[in-house]
Write a structure and sequence with these properties.
- The chain is α/β, with parallel strands linked by helices and about 260 residues long.
- The protein has one domain: Rossmann fold.
- Helix content is about 35%, strand content about 20%.
- It has eight helices and eight strands, in the order E-E-E-H-E-H-H-E-H-E-H-H-E-H-E-H.
- An eight-stranded mixed sheet has the order 1-2-4-3-5-6-7-8, with helices on both faces.
Length: about 260
């Protein structure tokens, strides 16, 4: 099936490890890999990616599931989650391991680094949120952002703390954190898919290298954020000054500037 056009993006392909996938690209500058959330490249995800490109980055957005441009809906999200559950590339319930697709994503990051000669950033969201952490094992990945990282799923205490990376990869990730590579995470406080225990574990493992933004979505919160708010920089973003989701977006953009451009403004 030919890839649907996404407004403002060039349609390219990346082949590696026996798999060829469509990658939507836009912009110039340090590369950032945008890993879309469930259910796919929605208009909100594409809008976020355009914003990054307009900030002066080469945005590469691989198409992993769903139908590009299709708006979010409950049935659509449930259907794509069910498909991910049976896919060999995603291990939604696996503890202490990365999803197999992260190996392919690492080759994409490597290709972007070789093409541009510049450090690479990455942001994962929801199902792909932890992927940015897994990509950090490679030296060229300098700006990993975890937006509402939701894997592995499950309600047990061990699953809620799990980081969806292997023990071996965690050793490399912790070494890079000690060397000064920071990690940014974002979540809503009452999001059942991204529990606070996961951020607590990230702080335990990475120390000051982990910067966690946790936005109050509890009852009676001052901004009226819904109890089940989930997507910090896309579906639940309120793009207004003074709103905590706008502050989180601004911090995300600043994080990329600092890590990819050396701009500490």
């Amino acid at each position: 099936m030919s890839a649907p056009a996404v407004d403002g993006f060039e349609i390219t392909e990346h082949a590696a490890l026996g798999s060829t996938r469509t990658v939507y690209r836009r912009g110039e500058g340090p590369p950032i890999v945008v890993m879309h959330e469930i259910p796919g490249i929605t208009p909100e995800v594409a809008g976020f990616a355009r914003r990054l490109a307009d900030e002066g980055y080469t945005v590469a957005m691989p198409w992993m599931f769903g139908t590009p441009n299709r708006p979010l809906s409950g049935p659509y999200a449930v259907g794509q989650m069910a498909r991910a559950c049976v896919s060999r590339e995603f291990t939604l319930f696996g503890r202490n391991q990365s999803s197999p697709i992260t190996d392919w994503l690492r080759t994409l990051c490597r290709a972007l680094h070789e093409e541009t000669g510049l450090p690479v950033g990455a942001i994962g969201m929801c199902l792909t949120g932890n992927f940015a952490l897994a990509l950090m094992v490679d030296e060229h990945l300098m700006a990993p952002v975890l937006s509402q990282p939701s894997m592995p799923t499950g309600v047990t205490a061990s699953r809620r703390r799990d980081l969806h990376v292997s023990s071996e990869d965690l050793v490399a990730i912790k070494r890079r954190a000690r060397e000064g590579v920071g990690v940014l995470g974002m979540r809503f406080t009452h999001d059942p898919l991204c529990p606070g225990a996961r951020f607590a574990r990230l702080r335990e493992e990475l120390g000051d290298a982990f910067e966690g933004i946790e936005i109050d979505s509890g009852p009676g919160n001052p901004h009226g954020i819904p109890r089940f708010a989930h997507s910090v920089v896309t579906n639940d973003l309120v793009d207004e000054e003074g709103h905590p989701t706008k502050a989180a977006l601004d911090r995300c953009l600043a994080f990329f500037r600092e890590r990819l451009r050396g701009d500490a403004r």
